[in-house]
């Protein structure tokens, strides 16, 4: 560690700060549906998720190796480049958290790394084949696969449980939700915590602190796991509200189906080394589960805003990172200026967020703006009319009403 310079220390600290924002930004992925259906109390849910995120960080290093060895060419990458990449990722995470949009922390990090690398070493330093096969294709496929699986699982669950006792079935599904939420948290640790491990390892290689092609050192795995666990425990309540109440209204059966489908997709991608967005997977499964219940609809206005944020994540983070890399190229004063700008911008976003506080005490408030009935919603409700007067319970047939 004799080569552990000041700039390298700054990069490591900034990477852990990104990991922290990743934790509270993505808490909704594991716990939004569990909290919204009442299966767990909010504080208990985020505490369980934090512990399992930490455990998951130790289960694999395949995704970390994709980032540290596969996405960009290690030769010629300096620690300042990685610092600039992290600046772009952190600011995008904070902005989307402020407006309550479940965008991808993973893609923010990928975009930041790509933008800073191109600004420093040119487009040839980015491995396009890895970008396409292990980042872009999974980004499109994951929400579709998870959504379809969740929709089919929800319909099957309602079909199998139509003759079961209502309250007993609901209690059973809530218990199943807790287990599936734990599985999502574990999967999140195996995927998202590793991305920070990969970034830190790439920085250590660039700074000469470890040999090229090295796996993440143990202290990197531990620190990344702790940082994402702490962020998870504090809870990204704004995004939890959007995921749990803003996209659709879920019952325990749907929550169980959504979380199980998402966890399966995430764990499979982690095993294959895909830098998958857990946000895309869980959001897709929530929407699929919403459409899996008769009368269930997705609030497409919220979903559209989310899709736009997904599309902007890579280029926006890349642009900010490229600008940051340009400024850091002027030397020590440039790096210091970018660091001050990052701290000041983060503080400003925090101050703005205090104007409307959302925390564990009001995350389940039902005053989420309802979406006006549009063409898509009308079409769905025409095919599967919702029950009138009462909410459909497990084991009960929805009331049939005549339609005009």
Automatic annotation (TrEMBL):
Question: Which InterPro entries is this protein grouped with?
Answer: Phos_transporter
One Pfam match, given by its short name, reads PHO4
The portions of this protein that span the membrane are 6-24, 44-61, 81-101, 108-126, 132-153, 218-240, 307-327, 333-352
The processes (GO biological process) annotated in the record are: phosphate ion transmembrane transport
- Show the GO cellular component annotation of the record: membrane
Q: Name one GO molecular function term.
A: phosphate transmembrane transporter activity
Keywords for this protein = Membrane, Phosphate transport, Transmembrane, Transmembrane helix, Transport
Q: Which domain of life is it from?
A: Bacteria
Q: Where in the cell is it found?
A: Membrane
To which protein family does this belong?
Belongs to the inorganic phosphate transporter (PiT) (TC 2.A.20) family.
Look up and give the membrane topology term. Multi-pass membrane protein
Q: What is this protein called?
A: Phosphate transporter
What is the protein's major site of localization?
membrane
Which parts of this chain are annotated as the region Disordered? 383-404
